Amino acid sequence: MSIQAVRGTRDILPDEVPAWHRIEAAARDLFARYGYREIRTPVFEETELFARGIGAETDIVSKEMYTFADRDGGSLTLRPEATAGIVRAVIEHGLLSTDPALKVYALGPMFRRERPQKGRYRQFHQVDVEAFGLTSATVDAETIELSLAYLEACGVGERELVLNSVGDRSCRPAYVQRLREALRDEAPSMCADCRRRAETNPLRVLDCKVPEDQSTIEGLPRITDHLCAECAAHFAEVRRQLDLLGIPYRLDHRLVRGLDYYVRTTFEVTSGRLGAQSSVLGGGRYDGLVKDLGGPDAAGIGFAVGLERLALLVPAEPPRPRCDVFLMPLAAAGLDRALRLQRSLRQAGLAAMLDPEGRSFKSRMKQADKLGARFVAILGEDEMARGVWTVRDMARSAQREVPEEKVLEHLKEKANG
Ligand code: ATP
Ligand code: MG
Description:
8-stranded mixed beta sheet; binds magnesium ion; 5-stranded mixed beta sheet; alpha+beta; single chain; binds adenosine-5'-triphosphate; 16 helices
């Protein structure tokens, strides 16, 4: 029996890769224009980083992490998200002391042991964007605008921005207490998850998707009615600036997001084209996190885009030609010249190929077609004898003879012209 990919992992095959290149190139280009630089952190970290940085009561930490004992007894975890590792690196290297308004982005695989389904994998990829040290509502609006600009740059049109404020450390605890009290009466009639969350993490009850629980949840106290004056003013200013920029959004008081560290602004972008896993990106403000993890008291705000889901939304592009020049030495004696020309063409920056198996003319022409070859250079017995190549321009179906000593220059000029 042959070995198969691990459940919940996925191969990204060559036909899919162009969409990924587009997504990655758009990230590098766009984020740089907003002042972000790339950071790369390890895919595994000390388990404690995630327990402290994400919150022990979250779904991610309580049941989705890939945690393993290292040989020396330490506990390591494959990163389930990027923010905690980035914050660790920012603190460890003192990046905020040289740049108090640090903006970084990262790109790479994340790992969560979830039930695999379309758009939900155990190894998946995210683009992650983080801005540190900035507290103003302008930064919230800019970050949200950037997340939408990114989708736009990837060619994604149909989407919805969902927005909420989850308060901060001065107003949320009182709200959570209220919620806990309301749930004392309601939870016994709710689903098992809600009954558990009512005790461990009442905010998570708002995430419940069980149909029977929905009317109960609608009746629970709403965070937006219990914001302190500062949080309410901040939220109003974020919304004013989004209006100013002409960015539509839907308010959803139940958008609390899966990570404990969020304060004030939380947001998510969904697409109706994704089916059940409709969220393509999510983010928010996390002002206390850097300090909690042992760094300076610096604000933070960011978002993470799920690239598997984004790739599903990126419009298909016509396949690009993979070959500039396909070389066809038809006589065995022509192989040496063809190999030298192939090397020179590649050194000149062109995609040059030949059929090393030396199959029939017909099957080689088929191969050239399949590769989308723009030019075919033929070296038969007759060409050999006269010291020329026959160069065929495939798009024009025109061909001409070119002397051996000029063929490299000719092909370079044609292929680049
Ligand atoms: P969901 O509601 O789908 O579980 P989440 O709130 O857990 O998402 P975040 O932690 O905010 O997601 O991650 C940001 C983005 O990463 C999501 O919007 C989604 O596109 C993507 N994502 C999260 N988990 C997975 C997964 N298991 N497989 C593929 N993509 C994922
Ligand atoms: Mg999730």
